[in-house]
């Protein structure tokens, strides 16, 4: 019997599919796009557990309990762990890779993506970035995707700087903005664990010093906005429209936790509001 280092057999696939509202289908590009978008819309990107000091870890069993059972979200290591397991159980050919957000020579490998090989094409699935892509993008140099008005581009990274890999960009009002660079090094569960440990405990990690909470919102089949909440600000982006940005107002975080449907216990909610208030005072 082949060892399963990623513990994919522990996944309750039926419960996950019910949570995101997608039926099980054989592997195809259409089915993959549908599942990716459903995942991104269902689960927030956030660092709430890091701020509260209660993060359960990034093992599949823990991520499943948090996301599927509780309906919570998290950051890239959790999204990537869960989404890759789902794809494997559905019969997709999956690889997990790590990447750098920021300088390729100074930033640590603290981002996790999933690459899917399908119909002789490799696709970048990235459900766990702050402003995640809504569907996978082909890994071709210069490949562009415009989905519901959200435009992204993939470029081959300079191997002399960071080794073989790929860079992801998003189109903003001022032009193409760099998001992250993903390498092609093999990844084991311990690598994801180490990345999570650094991100959640290293004193200088920005995940420990400010709130990050984002969600895509939709009205029926039409994409409405992407909302990002930080310790001090709220940013709302709509396809083809100027970005809205304003300082976080008194009492606004409480309203946004409801609006973005973040399922916190009363104790977690109270503690989070207290932590963010403390960060605002110290900042």
Detailed description of the structure:
- The protein has 283 residues and is an alpha+beta fold.
- It has a domain at 8-205: Arylamine N-acetyltransferase fold, CATH 3.30.2140.20.
- It is 33% helix and 28% strand.
- The strands form 2 sheets. The chain has an 8-stranded antiparallel sheet with strand order 5-4-3-2-9-8-7-6, covered by helices on one side.
- It is globular, with a radius of gyration of 18 Å.
CATH topology of the domain at 8-205: Arylamine N-acetyltransferase fold
What is the strand content? Answer: 25-35%
Based on the coordinates given, report the CATH architecture of the domain at 8-205: 2-Layer Sandwich
* Number of discrete helical segments: 9
- Distance N to C terminus: 54 Å
Mean pLDDT equals 94
Element string (H = helix, E = strand): HHEHHHEEEEEEHEEHEEEEHH
Number of strands: 13
Portion in helices: 25-40%
Stretches where pLDDT is under 50 for at least 5 consecutive residues are: none
Which overall shape is indicated by the principal axes computed on the Cα atoms? globular
Spatial arrangement of strands, main beta sheet: 5-4-3-2-9-8-7-6
């Amino acid at each position: 019997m082949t060892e399963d280092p990623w513990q994919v057999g522990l996944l309750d696939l039926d419960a996950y599919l019910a949570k995101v509202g997608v039926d099980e289908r054989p592997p195809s590009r259409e089915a993959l796009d549908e599942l990716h978008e459903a995942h991104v819309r269902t689960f927030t990107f956030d660092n709430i557990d890091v701020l509260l000091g209660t993060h359960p870890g990034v093992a599949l069993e823990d991520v499943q309990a948090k996301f599927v059972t509780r309906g919570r979200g998290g950051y890239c290591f959790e999204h990537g762990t869960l989404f890759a397991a789902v794809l494997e159980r559905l019969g997709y050919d999956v690889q997990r890779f790590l990447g750098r957000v920021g300088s390729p020579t100074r930033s640590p490998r603290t981002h996790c993506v999933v690459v899917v090989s399908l119909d002789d094409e490799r696709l970048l699935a990235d459900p766990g970035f702050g402003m995640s892509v809504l569907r996978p993008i082909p890994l071709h140099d210069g490949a562009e995707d415009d989905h519901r008005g959200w435009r992204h581009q993939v470029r081959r990274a300079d191997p002399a700087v960071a080794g073989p890999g790929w860079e992801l960009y998003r189109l903003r009002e001022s032009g193409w903005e760099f998001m992250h660079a993903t390498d092609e090094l093999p990844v084991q569960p311990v690598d994801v664990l180490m990345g999570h440990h650094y991100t959640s405990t290293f004193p200088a990690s920005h995940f420990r010093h400010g709130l990050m909470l984002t969600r895509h919102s939709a009205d029926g089949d039409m994409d409405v906005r992407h909302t990002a909440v930080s310790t001090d600000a709220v940013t709302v982006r709509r396809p083809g429209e100027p970005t809205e940005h304003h300082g976080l107002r008194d009492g606004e975080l409480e309203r946004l936790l409801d609006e973005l449907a973040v399922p916190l216990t009363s104790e977690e909610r109270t503690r989070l509001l207290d932590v963010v208030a403390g960060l605002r005072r110290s900042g």
